[in-house]
Amino acid sequence: MSLFKVVLNNSLQGTLDLNPISTNEEIVPSIQRTMFVAGPNRQIRKLKDGDQFNDCNYWKRFAFPQLPLEQAFIQVLTDDGSYYSDFSEENTYPKVYDLSVENGSTYSDNSVDILGDTNGYAIFVQIANQGNTPVKCKINGIAGAIFDLGSGETQVFNYGDLTISKLEFANTVSGGSTTAVQILASVKSVCQS
After folding, report:
1. Of 10, 27, 64, 85, which one has the fewest beta carbons inside 10 Å?
2. What is 3-56 written as a DSSP string?
């Protein structure tokens, strides 16, 4: 999720309706200036001058340089780098995890929380065991969704197979060594509005 700020009074739009407590050093957003804008998923969002909100990058289309400065009313404070398209199937972005799964470690020691990290779920995942020791992988925290991933093996879950929010790994091979596991995921960008 990116962080945005509503800027209804920018320098090229004039200073109509400034808050009376504004000074030359600090322009305080007006308490009266608000607008309604159609957001993603056809939801109407009320935007008040100076408010900040987290959402998908749909809102970048109302920010400079996508719009000329005199027309922009959104400021991008932090950008998560994700892509937004009006076609929801295209709203994905890559996420990579590299784990060192130590010998004797359990699922709780080696957890990848895709949903918690990205506020979205993976619609494609490639899991590669790059080490010399097999590991066990648990999907979405479900005790019945465990599979073995041998040394040098790769497991792929394609679009439509299942959505993945969490992966956990265990290395319980007697005499095994620490093994490297890499996860490549395509995460679905989810809009809040």
Report:
1. 85
2. EEEE-SS-TTT--TT--TT--SS-PPPPSS-EEEEE-GGG-EEEEETT-EEEE-
Phi, psi of 52 (to 5 degrees): -115, 145
Whether 65 and 18 map to the same domain: the answer is: yes
Closest CA to 102 of 133, 127, 130: 133
The type of residue at 72 is A
Residues 184 and 92 in one domain: yes
Looking at 78, 103, 136, the residue that finishes a domain is 78
The tens digit of pLDDT for each residue in 107-165 reads 999 999 999 888 889 999 999 999 999 999 999 999 999 999 999 999 999 998 999 99
What is the C-alpha to C-alpha distance for residues 15 and 90, in angstroms, rounded to an integer?
39
Q: Show the domain range for 50.
A: 2-78
Per-residue pLDDT tens over the stretch 40-53 = 878 889 998 889 99
CATH number, domain containing residue 114: 2.60.120.10
Question: What are the tens digits of pLDDT across the range 71-104?
Answer: 889 999 998 877 788 887 778 888 999 999 999 9
